[in-house]
Each structure stands twice: as structure tokens, then as C-alpha cells.
Amino acid sequence: MDFPILTLITFVPLLGSLIVLCMPKEKERLIKQFSIAVSFIPLILSILLWVNLEKGGGIQFEELVAWIPAIRVNYHVGADGLSVPLIFLTALLTTLSLFYSSFTIKNRVKEFFFLFLLLEMGMFGVFVSLDFVLFYVFWEIGLVPMYFLIGVWGGPRREYAAIKFFIYTLVGSVAMLLAIIGIYLNTGTFDIIQAAAMRPFVENFTLGALAFWAIFLAFAIKVPMFPFHTWLPDAHVEAPTAGSVILAGILLKLGCYGFFRVLLPMFPEQFHRFAPIIAVLAVISIVYGAMVSMAQWDLKKLIAYSSVSHMGYVMLGLAAAAFAIGSKDMLTSQAIAMNGAVFQMFNHGIITGALFFLVGVIYERAHTRDLKAFGGLASKVPYYYGIMLVAGLASLGLPGLAGFWGEFFVFRGTFAIAPVYAAVGVIGIVFTAAYILWKVIQHVFLGPFNEKWANLTDMETYEKITLWPLVIFMVLFGLYPPLIVDTINAAMTRLLSGL
Amino acid sequence: MTELYDWVRLIPLFPFLAFAIILLFTQRNQKLSTYLAWAGIGITWLLGWTIVFRAIGDKHVLEEGFRAPIFSIPTGRGLLELGFQVDALTTAMLFMVPFVCLMIFIYSKGYMHGDPRYSRFFAYISLFATGMLGLIVSDNLLLLYIFWEVMGLCSYLLIGFWYEKPSAMKAGLKAFITTRIGDVIMFLGMLLLYSVTGTLSFHEIFSEETLHFLKETTVWLPLVGTVSVAPVIAVLLFGGAVGKSAQFPLHVWLPDAMEGPTPVSALIHAATMVSAGVYLVARMFPIFALLPETASMSVVAFIGGFTALLAATIALAQDDIKRVLAYSTISQLGYMIAALGVGAYVAATFHLITHAFFKALLFLGSGSVIHGAGTQDMMEMGGLRKKMPITFWTFVAGMLALAGVPPFAGFWSKDEILAHAFEEFMHKGVMSWPFFVWLVLSLGALLTAFYMARQVFLTFYGEPRSHHMHAHESPKVMTYPLIALAVFAVFLGFVGVPEEFPVLGPLFGHNLFHHIVGHQYPATPLNWGVMGLSVLLALTGLFLGWLVYGRNPLKEGQPDPMTKLGPVYTLLRNKYYIDEFYSKFIVRPAVALATLLFRFDNSWVIDPFVNLVGKIGVWLSDLGRIFDLNIIDGIVNGVAAVTAWFGKILRLTQTGKAQNYLLVAILTVLLLLGLYLYLPM
Amino acid sequence: MVPLSWFLVLGAALFCIGVYGVLSRRNAIGILMGVELILNAVNINLIAFWRYRTPDHLTGLVFAVFVMAIAAAEAAVGLALIIAIYRTRNTVIVEDVDLLKM
Fold first, then answer.
1. How confident is the model at residue B510 (pLDDT cuts 50, 70, 90)?
2. For a designed S-S bond to B296, which of A268, B234, B340, B346 qualifies (C-beta 3.0 to 4.6 A apart)?
3. How far is CA B107 from CA A122, B43, B393, in A?
4. C101 within some domain
5. Residues 6+ apart with CB under 8 A from A110
6. What DSSP character marks residue C90?
7. Range of C38's domain?
8. Which stretches of A62-202 are DSSP H helices?
9. Residue C85 maps to a domain
10. Which chain A residues are within 8 Å of B181, Cβ to Cβ?
11. Residues of C whose CB is below 8 A from B662
């Protein structure tokens, strides 16, 4: 790779969005086609990136240019086995979302596509940044388009949801900004890799703990972990379909990614000390999220809460790995737990992304998401039923589909380190099965046919095209996990050996 | 020639391909779908039996096993290797599974004829076959668990196949969730095993060093304290078996599973899937038997024995032809589990194989009856013997095999279990669980014979008890599989005749089955007393059945003689009210708790707190607004007002006429010139 | 020979007339004529100083030619502007052209 691939990936969407801005807004077709075409560039580049990634090679594709020399802020980007799958996921979901939206978004088309491309840039930026200031800038950039996506194209309570989302995330961001400045004053660098190597506040545990919790708050809100999760159901329920997909698929991953990239390498000591607290929160997220999901009658809200539960797995794996920092014989279990956590991030992206698309599909037709209003649709819309079934089963962690592996590795890693947490966490698995099969599948598809939906049509071609790639990935990674675990494992082993 | 065994990798593949192709491409074409499914399982059957018959003569494979790796997943610096294998137990299962599956596939063509989702049915059962075949050829616990869950899914889909019926839909869900509870326990066992030994491959787990290591390792459990790790793993893994093999207390899903089409009941809920639980225990038997004096074996024995008796009693009072068989299945699985609990590994495996054949036969037979008679209620049937002769004779063969009448298959396997239990009990004395097992299993044998006799007499003898019964024999595509299975039900037992048995023993290779499967275990010696007793019990049961139901066949409108048992009958008929108990004390509280938590989240605590913080923020900012408006802004406005006043005055000088400005400029220049000239430097 | 001061007095007189014209006339053309007078007063000074002080260098002469060229251009642009204003507003009185004044 002798061209700046990461810069291209990050800024091609920005360029695209600016061009969209210059287009006349009556030419909706052109805007749609152009945006989709633009989003294909990072998608192809991210595949190239993955293919060319040298496993176990640490940070690669680095670019380092001075940006604000006065305070030593650099434009420093790079990628490794942790970020590359997430970059690919971002590119994939954005392309699919744009494609899907080009059929469903009817008003303010130009603004929508402009904001979406801008959002894509923000997400890429977070995943490639290796400089704190750059990281923070991209982190915040992502907020704004999402705020508008919810606030303009959202459902009836969109203003409330958008503001809640924005303010909640901002609270965390501010805490993080303080911590970043503290780290800079302590280490004299904004470079994430360098700062991590220097272990900020290594001489003062208490200050380190303060910085740790400040950054933790920012990421935990984004993940979201219990008890910082209540913005999520509102935001999801009100957001337009593509917004929900990106929100669940990528934005939540930004928080998890932060834990892996920033918090764990930088504060291993604090992370180790506080791992039990985080593990408890993670287990609560898993079980509590699953149970609350089971109590929902709104399909979209149910899936939103299921995200809380599923992201709990990620946090559990991470907490378990941190738990065992310092005991050398646990390296394998740590690596397995972290592999599981990262794999789970990816899986959750494709699975929940697919589920939100599917909710969109039915909502477009029925204009309701009330589970009680459906029934017996399986024969009426068999294609839709089939896809929903696959996505649902992947979500409940059926072996042979992608979701299983994440859960398995997380629990396997955790069990060796902290068996009690794992043992409590697996209760979530039963409830997940219950809410997917009982609430979603049974209430919508099975049972006597509800004659109200006699005119319901099955999935359109564009909807099929949107969902097939996701289904293929669920099956592909489910049947042959080394495809992705190889990449993740190399990065995680390297990360762990540096702690 | 190892190449042949390498083909084991393809065994689960063909049905899977059939599944994928049918589901994706040929759903519209029923005929093609049927043939695809047949081809998938047929090729696998041929391949499987080729491997089986090769392996039987191959001592190396039987003792050491042959492993065919597929892929490995990196775990830190290590690898988690997954693959397939052929060994003794796999060989035995590979003999049974593909053949029974094939028979059921063929049968299904007739039974499912005309169903709107006919093709999808074949896709699902192909996927199911994939699961079962993959399960028996897996060389490690993780892969086994994967296929295990695939079967769970198929079970869900197939039980709820007629999902328009609320009862079917609920039964599917119940099956999935109930077995999932067991699976989660098993999952924990698997995690514990993996964490302790660092491997999930059977080959490595059962190596000398690992077993020795497991023996030495202890684990701390809350409430219990420090215990040996092996029994903990064993009991946790057993949880999966309890769910899948429908043992008490997770047996409740299996009878409801009869809501599915009959071939499904035969395929999944009798012959194959439910035996997966037994297979799991058999497969992990070295761990169960590692410390035989600890809880691992006694728990297994107790659950198995208890279930065997419990289910047999419930079967006495059921009227649905399939439900009787369902409870009989639970009971027979209990036999196998109990057998494993007393250490009768070979006997349990043997019973697993024979039972699969004759239970598949019985279920398909009952399906044929249902197909012909159009009802599942035995109280409406009667006199079908003449109208459905093939079904009748094959059904009787199955019945005798199940009842344990010599020389049918079930006799040999059941007798071996009883003999082994008796042997152990003689060894350990009366106050031991082998005695309990022997006692309840013997009692169970009596009950089994009785309820099977009841079923046969109610169904086939006497006169029809419902006038809209126009029974007819089923088509050939359904009866041929019955005949094939019946042959096995009659003759299969001979592969496991005890070595010492006169004439038959030497004739059939000195207990061939034992040599294939149980080379590492001593054979159970022949015990004439036990054998005699078990034959006596079986015959007594049949005789009692004849006495009550056969001598004077029931007439239309006549009540079941069982009702004379009064409250006992009610209790049995309602399955000891276990379902109601679960519903009231487990399901409803769980749902209520979920609702409660949601309220907690959304209306009571967490979200209101967030909103409160938001409101405080708004209130504070309101306060700020007032302060701002009056004080801060006051100052700012004051400054602005002063500035404006000055501006107003200065404004007067700005006439806007260029000539005025020019005049000022010239005057200024003149003034400056004057100053320059006349002021002293 | 005529002394230098006579030329300077002539130039000063011409300048004063020009300034008076610029400041006092309301007619734009009159103002323009005043400006011309001022420029010509400067020209006279330039030529006079050249002739009497530095006859060897052509600087003063060249400057005078420059000023004449600029005066011509200025007159052309000025007249054009005045004609344009006259066409649109029908007046050449500068006080009437006060669009920018509040």
C-alpha cells in the first residue's frame, strides 16, 4: 500500500458529501445514485485494507503529518486487526443504509444524503485516529449528523430523542476531553500509542483512576452500559430505519472500540482494579437488557434493548480480560475473551443492523410496530419470515450462525477467569431465546392469520438486496469463523502482550 | 486405507446441501425437492454404511479412532481445532442414524402429501439430518454442541411446522426454550471443561494425562465448597442431556412436541434427536465414570430411573396414540440414562440403537394409523387390524420389541441393562442406587408391556368406536419403510446376544456389539435369573393388557377401564400437573419480572432519573436566563446605550456632502501649514 | 527675465480659484472644472521649477505630461459619470445625489 488508503477511506465520504451539497436539490435521483457510488469507494478500499493487512503486524497503514505543531497535535492515522473489521463493517452498513434509504427517504433527500456521508466520515475517523485530538474531533463530528438524522427524519417524539441522544453523549464527551487534556499534561503527547506506552499517571493511581472513570463514562454511555442506556431505546425508536441501523451497527461500536484502543492500553492498572465493577455492570446489562427486551411490545424497542444485552457480552469479555491482567497463565483465556468481544461487536453490527432493516420493512407497510397487532404472517410473507428467522436466530446465538461464536468466546474466556460472572451471564442466553422466538417470531409470524394484513406484500427486490449481504455474512462467519478471528486474534494477542 | 475414513467429512454435507438447495431454489417444485432430500440422505447413508462396515473390522479405528480435522480457530497463541472422527461409538451411531433417517424421509413423501409447505418440510428434515449426523461424527464437544443446537432449531421449526395452530406454535417454543435451559447448563459444563483442560477434543480429553489431571483438580463451588472438578463437569453436561433427552424435570416439552407432523415425531422425538442426550452422556462417559463414587453417576442413575418410572406411569392414562409413544420414549430414554448411571455403557448404547429402530417403527406405524384413520384419539379407533394389515403386523413387531419379549431387539438390550444393574447391586448391596435402578426399571418393564398392550388392543382390535372412521391402508411409500424397520426391530438384537447364551451367542459372533463398542469394558455376564424375571414381567404386562383391553374390546361410548383408578387416573392423565406447576411458578414469574424491570427502567427509576437530571438542567438554565437578562445583559446593554448616545452627537458632523468634507480638509491643511511655518521649531 | 516667483504666484492664484470652484459650485460640471484648474496650477508649478531649478533633468517636464494625461482621463470618467447620473436622475446638482445618505 503505497497510497494513503486510510485518508482516502476517511475523506472520500466528506468529498462526496460536499459534492452532494452543491447539487441542485430537485435532482434526487442523481443525488441518491451519486451518494451510493461514493460510498462504494470506501467499501472497496476497506476490503483492500483487510486483504493487505498483515496479521500480527501491529498498527499498519500509518500516516503521520504535523497538524497543530504548537501543541504537538498530529494527523496520525493507522489501522490494525481491531479496527480493520470495524472499518469494513462501517463501509458495508453505510452502503446498505444509503441504498435502502434511496428507496424509503422521500423528503429532504439532499440533506439526508449529505448528512449520511458526513456521518460516515466521522465514524471512519474514529476508527483510524491514533491522535487524541483527532479522535475527539471525529468523535464529535459523528454526533451532529446523527442528531439531525433523528431530529428531522425521525418518528413522532424525534425532538426529545435527538436532544437526549445528543446531550447524553456530549456529557460523556466533555468528561473525556478533560481526561485527554490531563493525559496530555502528564505525558506531553496527544498520540494515543505513545501515551499508552508511557502509561499516564503511572505515579499517581488516584489521578489515573479519575482519568479512567472520566473516559469510561464517555465510552460507557456510547456502548451503552447499564445504567447509562436509556437514551438508546428512545433514539432507536424515533430514528429512521437507516439511522437505527447505523446507530446500532456502528455508533455503539465506537464506545467499545474506545475501550480497546484507549482505555485498556492506557490504564491497565486501573482497569484491572475496577474490572469487577465493570464486569458486574456488564452482567447486569446482559441479563437486565434481555429481560427488559422480553417485556416490550414495540418491535423496534425490543431490538433496541436487545442491543443493551448484546453489548453487555462485549463488555463482559473485556472486563474479564482486564480482570486477569498480571497473571501470566491466563493469557489464552484473556485472548479468547477479547477475541469474543471484538467478534461480538462485528456480529452485533451485522445482526442488529439486519434486524433494524427488517423492522423498517414491516413498518413501511404496516405503519405499526406493535407486536400485538400482527400474527400469522409467515404464510403471507414467507420471504420476510425466512430472513427474519435467520437474523433472529443469529441474534439469539444459534451455533452455525455468526452470533454464537462471539458469545461462546466471551463466555469461554470469562469462565476461566471469573466463572461466577459467566455463570450468571448465561441466563441472558435463555431470555434472548425467549424474546426472539416468543415475542418476535411467534407474535408476528405464527399462529392464526390476522385478516387485517390481507394486503401485505412480501419483500421488494431492493429490500432483499439490502439484507442478503448481511445474511451471507451471518452464515459465512458462523460456518467458518477463522475468516475473521484470525485477524482479531493477532491484534488482541499483541495488545495483551503489551499490557 | 485411511482415505475412506477421510470421507467422514462429507457425511453431514449432503443433507445440508439438500437443505440449502431446496430452501433457496426448488421450493416450488415438490417432486424435485423430495428427490433432492432423498438423494442427500441416500448418499450419506451409503457413505455412512461403507464406513461402518469398514470400521467394524478395523481394530485400530475402533480402539484409537480416526480424526479428520476441518479447521481451527486461533485462541491467543493456541488453536481450537475442530474436526470429525470415526470411532467405536460413532460407528454404532452411524449404523443407525442415516438408515432410520432415510426410512423416515421416504415415508414422509406419503405422509406429507398435499401439504402446502411440503418442500419446506423436506428442507427442514434435511437440516435436521445434518445436525444429527454432524453430532455423531464430531470429534470435539464444541462441534457437537453446534450440531446439537442445530437440531434444537429444527425441532422448533418442525414441531411448529403447522404454525397456524396455536398449540403447535406453542409446543415449538416450549421445546426450544426448555431444551435451551438444559443447553445453557451444558454450555457451562463445556466452558468449565475447556477452562480446566484447555481442550475440547474428545481425543485429548480422554487421554490418560488429561483424565488423571481432571481427577486431581478441584474446584470451589459456592455453597458446596471445594469438590473434585470431574463430577461438576459431568453433572453440568448432564444438564444438556436432561433437556435434549427429555428427562425429568425438563421432560415436559416432548409430549407437546407431538403437535408436529408424525414423521417428525418419529425422526426427532423418538429415533434420533432425543437420543443425542444419551449419546452425549455415553460420549463423555469417561468423565462421568472418572470418580464413580461421587455425585456424577448417582445423579445420572437417579434421574434416569425416576424418569423411566414417571413417564411409564403417565403413559398408562393417555388417549392420544402419539402421546403414549412420547411418554414411552421418555421412559426408554430414562432406561438408557439410568443404565449409564450404573456404568452399563455398552448396554445403554445397545438400547439406544435398538430403541431407535423400533421406536421409529412404532411412530411411523402410528402415523400410518393416523393417516388412515384420520384421528389421533385411540378411544375413537378400534378394529384397524383388518383394514391396515401391514401397519398392524409391523406395529406389533415394534410393540413386542419395546415390551421386551424375546427374541425381539428390545429384549436383548433391555435385559442387558437390567442384568448390569443387578450385577452392580449384588456388588454394592441393597442400600445403593443400582438396586433402586434395577427395581424401578423392572417395574417399568411391567408397565411398558401393559401400556403397549393397551395401545395395540385399543387401536387394532374390536370395532371402530367412531362412525366417521373410514380407515384404509397407507400407500406403499409409507408401508415399505415400516417393513424395513420391522426387520431390524425383530433381528437387530442378535448382534448383542450375551456371549454365554447357548447357540445364539456363538452364532452371532460372541456378542458382536460389545466387541465393536465396548472393547474397554468387561461384558456383562449372562444372568438367567434376571433374564427370566424380565421375560416374566413383560409377559405379565402383556397378559394384563389383554385381560383389561383385549378380552373384551372396548365399545363405543364405554369408558376406559383405567378411569376406575379414580384420583390416581386423574393425576396420571394430567401428567402429575408438572406443566401447570412450571407455568405458575417459573414462566409467569419470569414474564412478570421482565415487565417489572421494564417499568423500573422506563417509568420508575432509571429513565425518570435521567429525565430528572435533564429537568434540573432546564431549571438551572432558566435561573441563569433570569440572572442573565437582568444583570449581565443589563451591563452589556448599558455599555451599548452609552456608545449609542455618543454616536448620536457625532453623527451631526457627518453631513454626507463631499464639499463640506473637502472644506474641512483644506482648512486643516492650511492650519497645519500655518503651524509649520510660524511655530518655533 | 521674469522671476520664478511670478509663475508661483500665478499657480497659487489658479489653485485658489480652482479650490473655490470645487467647494462652492453645486453643479457637478463646475466642480469638475475646478478640479481641472487645480491640476493646471500644479502643472504651472512643475514647469516653472523645472525651467528655473533643474533644466538638465527631464523629470519635471515628464511629470507635467503625466498630470495632463491623468487630467484628461479624469475629465472623461467624471463627465461620463455625470452624464450617467443625469440620465437616470435628471440632475447634475451634487446635493440631489444623496442615495447613500441616511
1. low
2. B234
3. 59, 17, 17
4. no
5. A20, A21, A23, A25, A28, A31
6. S
7. 4-96
8. 83-104, 109-128, 132-153, 158-187, 192-198
9. yes
10. 430
11. 22-23
Contacts of A434 in chain B (CB under 8 A): 177, 590
Give the 3-state secondary structure of residue B468.
coil
**B95: CB partners within 8 A, 6+ apart:** B48, B49, B52, B353
Is chain A adjacent to chain C, meaning 3+ CB pairs within 8 angstroms? no
Mean pLDDT of chain B: 83
Q: CB–CB of B659 and C22 under 8 A?
A: yes
Indicate the helix (H) or strand (E) that contains A292. helix A268-294
Nearest chain A residue (CA) to B191: A412
If you measure CA to CA, which chain C residue comes closest to B661? C23
Neighbouring chains of A at 3+ CB pairs under 8 Å are B
C102 within a domain of the structure (yes/no): no
What is the C-alpha separation between B187 and B194, in angstroms, rounded?
10
Name the residue in chain B with its Cα closest to that of A227. Answer: B606
At B302 the three-state DSSP class reads: helix
Distance from the B622 Cα atom to the nearest Cα atom in chain C, whole angstroms: 40
Query: Which residue in chain B has the smallest CA separation from C95?
Result: B657
What residues of A are in contact with residue B593 (Cβ under 8 Å)?
Answer: 291
Residue B568: band (very low, low, confident or very high) from pLDDT cuts 50, 70, 90: confident
- Between C23, C94, C100, which is nearest B663 by CB? C23
User: Does residue C31 fall inside a structural domain?
Assistant: yes
Which positions in chain B touch C102 (Cβ < 8 Å)?
A: 656
Exposure string over B460-490, b if 16+ CB within 10 A, otherwise e: bbbebbeeebebebbeeebbebbebbbebbb
Would strands B78-86 and B66-75 be described as parallel, antiparallel, or unpaired? antiparallel
**Residue B468 in this model has a pLDDT that exceeds 60:** yes
Q: Is B658's CB within 8 Å of C94's CB?
A: yes
- All three cell numbers of B240: 444438556
Report H helices in A53-131.
83-104, 109-128
* Closest chain B CA to residue A497: B76
Please choose, from the candidates B107, B85, B140, the residue with its C-alpha nearest in 3D space to the C-alpha of residue B41: B107
- Over residues A425-438, the pLDDT tens digits come to 888 888 888 888 88
Neighbours of chain C (3+ CB pairs under 8 A): B
Q: What angle do CA C11, C14, C18 make, to 5 degrees?
A: 135
A67–chain B nearest CA distance, Å: 36
Burial class of residue B496 in the structure, from the number of CB atoms within 10 Å of its CB (0-12 exposed, 13-18 middle, 19+ buried): buried
Q: pTM of this prediction?
A: 0.82
Q: Which of A230, A293, A339 sits opposite B610 (nearest CB)?
A: A230
State the number of CA atoms in the 13 A half-sphere of A311 facing the CB. Answer: 35
Using CA atoms, how far apart are residues C27 and A248, in angstroms rounded to an integer?
77
- B591 with A411: Cβ contact below 8 A: no
Residue B1: the pLDDT is: 45
Q: Which residues of chain C does B658 touch, with a Cβ-Cβ cutoff of 8 Å?
A: 94
Beta strand B66-75 with A73-79 is unpaired
Looking up cell 364405554 gives: B558
Among B357, B351, B404, smallest CA distance to B541 is for B404
Would the pLDDT of C3 be above 60? yes
Of B164, B591, B607, the CB nearest to A230: B607
SS3 per-residue string spanning B502-517: CCHHHHCCCCHHHHHH
CB-based contact B36:B21 (threshold 8 Å): yes
Please tell me the distance from the alpha carbon of residue B528 to that of residue B280, in angstroms, as a whole number.
31
CATH number at residue C24: 1.10.287.3510
Q: How many structural domains does chain C have?
A: 1
Q: CA-to-CA distance for B412 and A34, rounded, in angstroms?
A: 75
Using alpha carbons only, give the angle A259, A263, A267 rounded to the nearest 5 degrees: 150
Start-to-end C-alpha separation, chain B: 124
CB pairs under 8 A between B and C: 17
